[in-house]
Amino acid sequence: MKHPIIPENADHELSIQQSQFKNVISIFKEVSRSLPEKTAIISESKSLSYEELDIQSDQLAAYLLGIPLKKGASVAVCMSQSVERIVAFLAVLKIGSAYIPIDGQLPENRIKMIIEDSQTELVITEDLYLDKFEHMQVQLVNMSHGISEPAGNQISIIPDDIDMMQTAYIIYTSGSTGVPKGVEIHHEAFYAFVVSFTELLGYSSRDRTLQFSSAGFDVSIIDIWIPLFTGATVVLYPDNKIIGKPLLDFIVDHKIEVVPFIPPAVLSTLPTNLPIGKLHTISIAGEVPSEQTVKNWCNRVRLINIYGPTETTVGVIAHHFQDDTNPHIIGKPLEGTHIHILNQDLEYVNEGITGEIYIGGKQVAKGYINKPAETSEVFIEAPEWIQSDYGISYRLYKSGDRGFLRKDGNIEFVGRLDEQVKLRGYRIELKEIEHHIGQLAQVANVAVKVHRPEQGQPVLVAFLELYETDKEHITVEDIRARLKQSLPIYMLPEKIILYDKLPLTITGKIDKSKLQVPLQQTARKAKEKVDASDLMQEIKEIWMDLLNLDEINENDNFFELGGHSLMLGQLHARLPLNIQKRISLPELYQFPTVSLFVKEAETRLAQNQLSQQQKARLVEEQLIKDAELPFDFEIAVQPDPKILSDPSTIFLTGVTGFVGSHLLEELIPRNPNAVIYCLVRAENETLGLERIKSTFLKFKLIWKTEYEDKIRIVLGDLTQPKLGIDEKLYEYLLKNIEVIYHMGSDVSYVKPYEHIKKPNVDGMAHILHLAVHEKTKFLIISSSIGVYSWGRSFTGKTWMTEDDPIEQNLPAVCRDMGYIRSKWVMDSMASKARAKGLPLINFRLGFVVCHGETGATPLNQWWSSLMRSCIELKAFPLVMGLKDEVITVDYVSKSIAHISQNPEAIGLNFNLNPLPEHDLSLTDFCVRITDYCGLEMKSLDFETWFEQWKRNHETPVYALLYLFSDDVHEGKSLVEAYENTYYFKSSNTERFLEGSDIRPAIFNKPVIEAYLRYMKMI
């Protein structure tokens, strides 16, 4: 077997016989000798060549030898991500001691526990973490200011002096009792892994590799030492561990070719619709990846799955994903490792039969430091019949993992012994439930655990992270209904809890310990006032109470601890009243950590509170600025208007939304010669298509197989420049698209303007870029009647026409929600672009409630939440003349598809709203529900009605609490401000629909019954 190192040639390629070396330090010394000037490590601030790394680690090793340490003593290293940290690790290895990597972000008590348990006397650290060791009896070496020259002559490190049974490093893992256990890995095991794993991956000294893992996690051996023992260049990823697109950008910008380790949960966040630069190999480990993640990456890179407990030196089994994307296949043993799948009697099980995985060979660790009892439980002497094959001193590690041998010789992982639970007499595999939930197209990440309440029986709870664009369109009820189609009743989770982001450990795994089942408890009453000095503790207590946590860090992120948009109403209601008045509910998005929130609250408490007029003036200035066109352009040649009636290429956004999906259904038959390019946020084209199909299914649309021949999936994102589309594809679209239908928007009523601006306003700018570059395209956009807001209070007018300038309503828009502000800016940008010659058609939609026949509706939208609340309360508020211009989605989609094919529509605005005689107010709508469906609802004055539910967070509309409570104008809430809203003329719409059978739906008995039936309210 050959080790790909040495001797050097012109292009820095190395190779060597493994037998030439006795240990890992010998390997490193030879690499340093052969490639002295080659860059070894690159960080944000500096880099070191192999020679410099060798010299600096020699110097530190000499310094450490001058400190009186016991023979075989361990040395802790607590430093941030840096070149110096690797110098420290290497120096400790060189003096024959064991290094203990400690993550400086760990709580001080846990660090103290590690120091005491390992009996470490020396810690190498830096200024940043000195205070962590203030009260510990240890010597400190502070690397922040360098080290003094060692006394006497410079020492010479002799690698051959290292005893292979000496401990090389100690990694602390979480123990089942809550007390961390230090795993002692000796040099023989370390060396055996390096040799076999390097052989497996075939690393080259030409490679640039990413160091991503936490140093306290055993896979740091893979992304620190394997590259350095191969002569590669290691690029350190910053400590912040930002994932998703920024991580992919880092990989591309730094020309990374190999990612030796990345957690599957982190890999799943990387966009798959963007270039990956020189990246060709990725290794994953730590947990079972989702099948979708495997499918997304196995054809783009060489994707290696590594299996191995910390107790057996990082990895003992590996699998290269190719044709078979089964994520549970962990592969075949590395050379020198033996895998035994045994039953409870320590007997081999037959092929295909599940047993426990036992591991033998040179990579088995010495045990747990200073824990002989725990060591003897899992590091066992092999049965005699196994010793007869491998020797009398042969030891096995009892992994606690279950798996079976497949016919092809690969091992398939089944799960943890402790993940197989027994509930109500049934044996249940949690991983199996996670697998089925993970198959849903809307689910980005999932974890399932058993919740054992203080009273009552244990229950299954599923914690889900949805893709951002699906959060408004799918409910827990939808998910539960789909799971019933694939799981037996006894495996269905009793609770499904949605997280904005599932929390991850520092190693990138889903942190199940932070997944909490919210307590059913009465919210504590908000305090009248809290002084700035007490604010930090008060906010921590509110968070802990709301999130059911015993402890919270001031830098913890609300959304990563289980908080979500629907919970923000509860959070805001619990804030001290003097804070509630200064920070609105939507603004909570901007301050997701305790420290950020407290800092902002302190600032606002110290300042004079702005008047409503002053706030509105600031917002007005911002909106006017944002409404400017983002770039200048000239329309040299107008496209042929005849194209509108028979285009060959169409670009459609918002296709996984309510209006966009229905419009797609209309566009396909009306444009028989067109290919429709659909912008979708997804990991790949297959998943993108599945998301569209899933949307059709959810909204009771019929998906026809021939549709797949008519559409093309375009992976992208409205928030990104050039829509996040692959460069070559974007160039093609610039040259070939003829008509753009822009239906995509974030329709959240909770998010502040600052958050919703990116998809809506910036998204509009990116659409305009597509529309005017290379050649001019026709642009059809969906705006909103909301751009008129509740402007009647300022204009004094009763009617608004399609041609009335929306600027006159800006005083109301400035006081309205972030969504309305963003639509006003989008509409204004469209008007300016049209004035410069862009052929544009603007549809201003009323509130799209449901489908006129099926009743399908997004259950979490404003109107549906309000109606469900009124039905549950058996009461509705009397807000005279509050109208949302309610219409049906079939009317909207048919109207847009029909009118947009008429060239005379170019340059016009079209109001899609009910006819005045059918324009229902909130009162009208609720009375019809009572009359048509027999659901009793009485009218109450606004305050009495609001009082009935404002402290009950189970009320469907609770997430929008601020709409009913915050004073926006003259003592009125936003909902109250909408009383006696405008009536709207839609002359253009009526004229262009003449001769067609398209009419605004009347909310009669069949429509309202279908609507309530879809919501399961009747």
TrEMBL record:
The entry's keywords: Phosphopantetheine, Phosphoprotein
Pfam families tied to this protein: AMP-binding, AMP-binding_C, NAD_binding_4, PP-binding
Family annotation (SUPFAM superfamilies): Acetyl-CoA synthetase-like (SSF56801), ACP-like (SSF47336), NAD(P)-binding Rossmann-fold domains (SSF51735)
Domain Carrier: residue ranges: 530-605
PANTHER family reported for this sequence: BETA-ALANINE-ACTIVATING ENZYME, CARRIER DOMAIN-CONTAINING PROTEIN
Name by which UniProt lists this protein: Amino acid adenylation domain-containing protein
